[in-house]
Amino acid sequence: AKDGYYDGVTFHRVISDFMIQGGDPTGTGRGGPGYKFEDETRGNPLKHDTGVISMANAGPNTNGSQFFITHSPQPHLNGRHTVFGKVTKGQDVVDAVRQGDKIIKVTVTEA
Hints:
The structure is a single chain. The protein is 5% helix and 19% strand. It is mainly β. Strands 1-2-4-3-5 form a five-stranded antiparallel β-sheet, with no helix packed on it. The model has no long low-confidence stretch (mean pLDDT 93).
């Protein structure tokens, strides 16, 4: 993210009251960085609450660059997708995103 990988990438999948998904450089939902990495769900206490940022995947250990942000709690995803962040300000912006909207710039802060 700090090298601009996500800058200009679209949210290619938006489902009302569920989540917005982005991170595919092709914008089709099929693209990624060219590699995959393992899930980090075992022992991860973070849950899919409102505003959670989590890895999108196509099954176990298929994480790449795609991620999603939840509109509301999604407990059925707990243990199936790696949670790695949370929206702390601007959930209203997340809720206003429409399919095809572009990410202008990503800023990552550590707590």
